[in-house]
Amino acid sequence: GSYKNTLSLLQKALNFFPADPAALSLFAKSYLYLWDLSKKDDDFLNAVRLLIDRALKIAPDHVDSLLAKTLWLIRKKERAEAQKLISRLIQENPYHGEAFLIEGELFFLQSLWNKAIASFQKTLELDPAWVRAHYFLGKSYQKKTNPEKAYEHYWIGLNLHPEHGLMRLEASLIDIQTFNNLTKAEGNLKIVI
């Protein structure tokens, strides 16, 4: 899939900047954000941790590297340590939208829907371009059995990123299950296929 192409390009770029914390953390975060679409390869996940550790050795307070470490901890299911780190990062950087996004994902994985929603809303307040926040807001509202609100966020996100296949699929499922609109769902899914 396209996630492999993205990772391949980032890996090539990393060859040009092997000691740059920004490049190292960008590669790590890209893989970690694509985790759900990947084969969830633990060996590669451990290699990503080496990149994060290298970035933090160069610049111990590099925010993006610390965010990558938080994502890594989440993927390894070390949620208590991830919560500690993301809470510290938010306290030190209260205007960093991505930190709230990661906090929201952590709350989502713990089924803390209201806290997740608050974090994703804060993400969008600080940086409205985070499509991932709309996706997880939609998922959170679905978990709270509010498909209309979920649908709204899926479509806001799709207006920003029309090729987001998972969001389009979720919106189409709501078209079918909630609005009984199979025709619209079929039209939406043809765009992805």
Please bin the fraction of helical residues: over 70%
Question: Total helix count?
Answer: 11
Compressed to H and E, one letter per element, the order equals: HHHHHHHHHHH
Q: Tell me the structural class.
A: mainly alpha
How far apart are the termini? Answer: 13 Å
Which descriptor suits the 3D outline?
Answer: globular
- C-alpha-based Rg, rounded: 17 Å
Could you report the average pLDDT, rounded to the nearest whole number? 87
Strand percentage lies at under 5%
| Low-confidence regions | none
Q: What is the number of strand segments?
A: 0
What's the story with the biggest beta sheet? none
What does this structure look like?
With 193 residues, this protein is mainly alpha-helical. It contains eleven helices and no strands. Helix 3 packs antiparallel against helix 4 (63-75).
Topology, pairings included?
Elements: H1 2-16, H2 21-33, H3 42-58, H4 63-75, H5 79-92, H6 97-109, H7 113-126, H8 131-143, H9 147-160, H10 165-177, H11 182-192
Task: Please summarize what this structure is.
The protein has 193 residues and is an all-alpha fold.
Keywords:
mainly alpha
